[in-house]
Write a structure and sequence with these properties.
The complex is a heterodimer of chains A (569) and B (174). Chain A is an alpha/beta fold. Chain A is 36% helix and 16% strand. Chain A contains 23 helices and 20 strands. In chain A, helix 3 (58-72) runs parallel beside helix 5, helix 16 (375-385) packs across helix 17 and helix 16 (375-385) packs parallel to helix 23 (522-532). The termini of chain A are far apart. The model of chain A has no long low-confidence stretch (mean pLDDT 96). Chain B folds into two domains: 2-80, 2-Layer Sandwich (Alpha-Beta Plaits), CATH 3.30.70.260; 84-156, ACT-like. Chain A, domain 2 (Alpha-Beta Plaits, 2-Layer Sandwich), CATH 3.30.70.1150. Helices cover 28% and strands 39% of the residues of chain B. Chain B contains five helices and nine strands, in the order E-H-E-E-H-E-H-E-H-E-E-H-E-E. In chain B, the strands form two sheets. In chain B, strands 5, 6, 7, 8 and 9 form a five-stranded antiparallel sheet that branches. Chain B has a four-stranded antiparallel sheet with strand order 2-3-1-4. The chains are: A alpha/beta (569), B alpha+beta (174). Chain A binds chain B through residues 126-127, 130-131, 134-136, 138, 155, 187-190, 313-315, 317-319, and chain B through 9-10, 14, 17-18, 21, 25, 44, 57, 60-61, 64-65, 67-74.
Amino acid sequence: MRNDDKTVMRVRTGADLLIESILASGTDTIFGYPGGAVLPIYDALYGGKLKHVLTRHEQGAVHAAEGFARVSGKPGVVIVTSGPGATNVVTGLMDAMMDSLPLVVFTGQVASGFIGTDAFQEADVLGITAPTTKHSFQIKRASDIPRIVKEAFHIATTGRPGPVVVDIPKDLAGQVVEQVPDEEMNLPGYRVKDDLDIDLLQVKRLGEALSASERPVILAGAGVVHAKASELLLEVAEKFNVPVVNTLLGLGSFPADHPLFLGMGGMHGTYAANVAITECDLLVNFGARFDDRLTGNLAKFAPNAKVAHVDIDPSELGKNVKTDIPVEGDAKAVLNSLLMGSYPSPDTEDWRKLTAKNKMAYPLQYKIEDNQILPQQMVEWLHDYTKGEAIVVTDVGQHQMWAAQYYSFTKPNRFVTSGGLGTMGFGFPAAIGAQIAEPEKKVVAVLGDGGFQMTLQELAVVKERNLPLKVVILNNEVLGMVRQWQEAFYEERYSESLIPVQPDFVKLAESYGIKGVRVESEQEARQVLAETMTNNEPIVIDCRVKKLENVYPMVAPGKGLNEMLGVKA
Amino acid sequence: MKKVVQLLTNNESSALSRILGVLSKRQCHVESLSVTSDVFNPDFSNVTLVTDLKREEEASLLIKQLDKLIDVVEVKDLTIKGGVARELALVKVASPSDIRSEVISLAEPFRASIINVSRDALTFQLTGKSEKIDAFIELVKPYGIKEVSRTGAVAFIRNDQEDSSAKECSLALN
């Protein structure tokens, strides 16, 4: 239809409904990449209220959405096209599934009539994403869009959060919609418990077990962060005098500078944390899923302990570790209930003396060397120059473990990392998402040279949006964790793990219009950090670190947590 | 051990693939699977699933993971709750005229009915517990089985009191 001044009037389509529904969910920012099947959706976005961040690859969009979700607690929203657009987000979906991040991902689909014909850019998105999502939908009628979008956001953000896919055939996005029924959600198979609906009988058993314990340990995971229950965790730990161990994803849920904190547990956990888990008589897990990287050999895991497990997802209870006190419920509600109950505090003084002694006697350690930067040192300096207040986003590998070990997180939502899936290439785009969610905060991407090369094309987004993001590459010119395992278990046969040919990261940054700098000594590092960590400019720091440094302590595969390598003799 | 699981699901083809996804992810063998539209609500389907688990502890985990699927409205482990399960089979047995009456006499105690007769074969229809059908097939095997088609078990809870008493009923489905 044309009016007199020849501007084209748009009628209301399925795509308009989609954008309206996304806005109605409270979303203001989405990440995406256009393509044929989503042309109607991108047309509806044009000039509208929804802020769209154009990444340079769909993988970048989905990881950015994860970073956004992780620090904001709000769902990360993504739009990608059909076929390759959709398959390019599968890794991010799986990553969000493993780490319980709320995502709503809209994928274009070929027109309804072409589905199943191997049409151009067709992929069976529901089939491909079924095992990598909490749920997925395909739109069958344009008028269903508002209801299904409502359902998608509801599923992604409630209970144990997770990724949801909504697949939208192109013809339905383009279809003119006249009347839209205001439909309620219809999810008969999805029951979300009220946060306060916890198993009080089991909470009572947990409270009594805490009171009766002599050597208790709390293991705090990401569930505490998701439940916004860090302060309650601190109160409970202090009330019952219980030392606390964090999982990788739980870092920040308990202040790292607190006397009761023993550090991260697991494969690269601290001696004090792993020995405490091995020797405790009561292990209370709040919101962690007993991942194998945390437990080591299950037969040797917490052998003398009664195990209590608090989790919002009942299918996690008893999955990996036999649980004596399974508590289904939100960590916050359970912690609250423990504080309200009249459970006497146990006398754990001897135990705390022992755990504190282990912490003092066997700290994380590295051997300073002349004329080269150790990656651990760089993380510590980064901590100092950001006053420990940065949001640290990592990729996957050695640098990830060093960041986890040495940054000392004192607050929740300051550590973003790919835990369960261990996705290389995650860190840089996730940092972009985190910076977009928290524009006023200092965000530092701590990356390896390998992982950064998987998704570095997103430098364009940093420039385009003038994000004050700090990128620190701990550059050892090797795929460090692979190399470390080859050194430890494959007689130093460094098969395809040495990558001497690299871009010049300084020039690379400059080619995107971003300042780049190389640092090779402590003096240079300190100078650059002092200059750049306080300003509002993006920077890429190519920090050359010792090539053959290893992450210690280390629990070798098949070993128990107390059988650590690389602990001070 | 054998587990009979009854599910009420959304009537969507993706529901079935998700259910099988949970099983294949855990490397659970599917012995039989039956799917029909729900009589009371066309938006739902009834699924009966028989699987063989290595350890009893896997059962509760499997049930919880199935229950977690948004397409699954309800899931019950009938081996714990006391279910009744039956199966239907069509069995075509070679029966040349000289042994035909012998084959028929074998089928009688199984209450198998003859639904098709050809010059050299008889087709029996029988219903009952899966073990009964197994036994019949074993019995007529020496005569030469030409074809077998089985529905797999369909099942539900025997009585309505399953919620009031959590007591474990006999594990064998009678």
